[in-house]
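Technical appendix A lists one of the benchmark inputs used to test multi-chain prediction within the project. The record comprises two sequence entries:
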Amino acid sequence: MTASTNQTNVVPERTVLSVDAMGGDHGPAAIVAGISRSVKANPDLYFILHGPQERLSKLVAKRKQLVGRVEIRDAKDVVTMDDKPSHVVRHGKSTSMWSALESVKQGEAQGCVSCGNTGALMALSVMRLRKLPGVNRPAIAILWPSRNPTGFNVMLDVGADIKADEHDLLQYALMGVSYARNGMGLERPRVGLLNVGTEEHKGRAELKLAHELIAAQADNSSFEFVGFVEGGDIPGNACDVIITDGFTGNIALKTGEGTASLIGDLLKEAFKYSPLSRLASLLAVTSLQRLKKRIDPRRVNGGVFLGLNGTVVKSHGSSDATGISAAIGLAVQLAQSQFTQKIAARVASVTPMTQDDSTGVKAD
Amino acid sequence: MTASTNQTNVVPERTVLSVDAMGGDHGPAAIVAGISRSVKANPDLYFILHGPQERLSKLVAKRKQLVGRVEIRDAKDVVTMDDKPSHVVRHGKSTSMWSALESVKQGEAQGCVSCGNTGALMALSVMRLRKLPGVNRPAIAILWPSRNPTGFNVMLDVGADIKADEHDLLQYALMGVSYARNGMGLERPRVGLLNVGTEEHKGRAELKLAHELIAAQADNSSFEFVGFVEGGDIPGNACDVIITDGFTGNIALKTGEGTASLIGDLLKEAFKYSPLSRLASLLAVTSLQRLKKRIDPRRVNGGVFLGLNGTVVKSHGSSDATGISAAIGLAVQLAQSQFTQKIAARVASVTPMTQDDSTGVKAD
């Protein structure tokens, strides 16, 4: 008993993350730079880094603060953005992505971070880590800049699957609430169900059924259900957690990103128009940087895979060191909060199960 | 024959629009101001204005340029934003919205403009004007600020219906092409089908089927099919016409609007932060106005109802005079291009029909 207690105390002090060094647009140099930045901010971090040994060794050797903190696992192949998930599942054993998930599966690391192909990462994660008991469809959750006091909303699913029935949507709500509580510190998150109108008679059949299921769980699971919300509420402050199927969520996410990017470019153009506007842009530079920081996607970089036996954070393919470091920070926070165990307990508490819940972790 | 030719020449010179004066957030004063602005720009315009006679007479009397151009039709009731479409269809005969559509049905006006409840306006339009032969689901098309040379993309459906099968999506493509050609002057519009990825194996079953149907019609109907596009392409320049079901389109539209609005507010905040940034904002005022004008939703105000026997333009509920005037301009352009007849011919050309196509208008 004493040994066991000691072990429980020791583990959280030494957080080990498994990082896929390959598959991002900027190559392994950006990943190593991101790891290095994370270690500066959090000296209790250790890494298992997956990719071509020789190349990674050289990159790691250049960073003094990484000495003794990074173990490299040789993986000669890379999952590309064009690889089909089904192909990777069958033939991807020699890839850095597979190897990175393996470290989580074997319990060597408390979480995995990858910038690679989202579809392949999800397919491999489901195959290697397996879904949590009671979870039908895992989901990808992201943080979205919003008018909320925290500055962000959680939205899921943004693309793990293209469909979701009412039971899936209920599970998304439960998993999203756990995420908002453990990842954003919200005690009693407000949950909204994405629809084309807020009236209860509107929308698809599965949304009306999901409305009932989610409403019925609100008190039990300590969240507030605000009912249907609309697209405009995604960047709004009507709720903290937005529930939708992966098709709609993916389109909404990319539409929002594309709109923000268009406005950013038009803003730059507008400031280049005349000598006076160029002068204005010089004076406005700190204001614009403040705005940019507020909605900088790198600050909230990381789609979290929910519903699996293990924490997996998908960093944006175009992530630089700042983005990678943010994704690592998120993985650390989730790993240290025993997030996976809490989601498992939460899902188990509302899913009729034959076996006993033996996680011993309070649902949260 | 001579008389008929004369008539054809006369009709376009005198364009009559039917305008619902009620149901907008700013009341009939904004509508009358918008009409007045339109007349200044286009002295060949005449209006039938629907709403409470006494109130409208006073508003119209204040504007000299409207003398002899506006006929008022008394309608004592108003469709509110909260009215259920099914209720309006059954009990809405005394409303200004119903009356406004009636003028189009009776052939007194070449198009209808309303700021009212979208669902009710669509339901009433379908009931009173009827769908074009061969059209299963009418659609709402909007213009979206984009990186295209024209500055805008067409997207449909953005909320007429919550579902669409592959045949509906094909019809949306044909109707959207007609709109891009007649409303935006694009000879050979590029059409994209909205999905969660651009690979042909991705997405829902009906999208794969629609991909085949639309591709097969591209040459016949003189458009270019670029295949699947993603949310980021809505404000992009991959295509000119974006095809999707009304559920997804509505969520995307509102997400984009909400994101733009959040960025606008954060931009204002950023410029208020310090004395220096306030000075910068003074210098930048013309640059920012240029940007605002570029993405000002009022400039492209108007969702066009496609697939009906008549032109109906839905102006935004919060439209001011500028917005109303833009919606009227759009209705005029579509009415003068014999848009409805062209869509009817286009749909008929690819829809197996029992009766002969007797519109005599070239598909466009």
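Chain B has two domains: 1-133+307-338, 136-299. Chain B touches chain A through 61 residues (CB under 8 Å). Comparable benchmark entries are summarised in Table A2.
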